[in-house]
Amino acid sequence: MSPVGGGMSPLDDGLAGARVLVTGAAGGIGAAVADAFVEAGSAVVASDVAGLPRDSGARATVRADLRSAADRTRLLAATAEELGGLDVVAHLAGVLRRREIDEVTEDDWDLQHDVNLKASFFLLRDAAELMRRQGTGGRLVAATSQGWWSGGYGGSSVYAASKGGLVSLCRGLARTYGPAGITVNTVAPGAVDTAMLTDDLSEQALAGIVSATPLGRLGTAQEVASAVLFLGSARASFVTAATLNVSGGWLAY
Fold first, then answer.
1. Which of 15, 50, 67, 158 is within CB 3.0–4.6 Å of 40 for a Cys-Cys bond?
2. Is the pLDDT confidence value at 1 over 70?
3. Cα Rg for the chain, rounded, in angstroms?
4. What is the pLDDT of residue 205?
5. Is the dihedral of CA 5, 10, 13, 14 positive or negative?
6. Catalytic residue among 118, 163, 177, 253
7. What are phi and psi of 141, to 5 degrees?
8. What is the pLDDT of residue 3?
9. Is the Cα torsion angle 5, 40, 225, 59 positive or negative in sign?
10. Separation of alpha carbons 60 and 47, rounded Å
């Protein structure tokens, strides 16, 4: 992926023809991100543990459970074969179980950390190794949460812990793979109007979040997708180890 300043016009984001893998693409923010890359002219492989619609616009769809090492290996191999390589990974897959602290079970802990942290490490590391072998650099963008900073609200403390780990993990990956021209960043959505936020959160809690948000509303999945596209583009060529706050000002940092 050619950086801005390396012979590319600053008006060119480098996404036309970029080879992109999007995880968690069956719905919510992941689906919006996959759609946005397609609209930008990228060649996209979309993946989810659930099935994806045939008319998603992606070049190919791959069902994969990222907790499985075999599935992760198969996903990256299928993506590289379908697209002829890999330039961008937009890793949006994640799982949230809302539980009060005294109700959290080991199964709740293990599921969220296995998907949100453990699987993320191995997927992003292996994708970075693939990019390093290609020798053309690349972009890794992962979805964290405002919980990485706040500790989580509405029974999401374990989820927040896994997402805080993901921020630290991506900073470490950024240091490791920066010399290969690979950037690693995270996007931290605030209150976004998706099922993950609204399905299990009380109306009172949701109203409290909205009232504490300076913009006075929920965000949209498309607004988060715009942030992901920026970090996946040539315009973000000198941005790495960063966490982009997309919360409408709900948290300020």
1. 15
2. no
3. 17
4. 79
5. negative
6. 163
7. -130, 125
8. 46
9. negative
10. 9
Q: Which two tokens stand for residue 118?
A: 């453990």
Any idea of the CA torsion for 156, 158, 163, 169, to the nearest 10 degrees?
170
Which helix (H) or strand (E) is 224 found in, with range?
helix 221-232
Q: How far is CA 112 from the centre of its chain?
A: 15
Alpha-helix residue ranges (DSSP H) falling in 63-156: 69-83, 106-113, 119-134, 147-150
Selection from 175, 79, 169, 161 nearest residue 127 by Cα:
79
Choose the catalytic residue: 118, 153, 159, 253: 159
CATH 3.40.50.720 assigned to 19-246: yes
For residues 152 and 102, the answer to whether their CB atoms sit within 8 Å is no
Residue 152 falls in which region: left (phi positive, over 0), alpha (psi -120 to 50) or beta: left
Q: Is the pTM of this model over 0.85?
A: yes
Residue 184: how many other CB atoms lie within 10 Å: 28
**Environment class of residue 41 by beta-carbon count within 10 Å: exposed (0-12), middle (13-18) or buried (19+)?**
exposed
Q: Which of 52-56, 111-115, 164-168, 184-188 has the lowest mean pLDDT?
A: 52-56
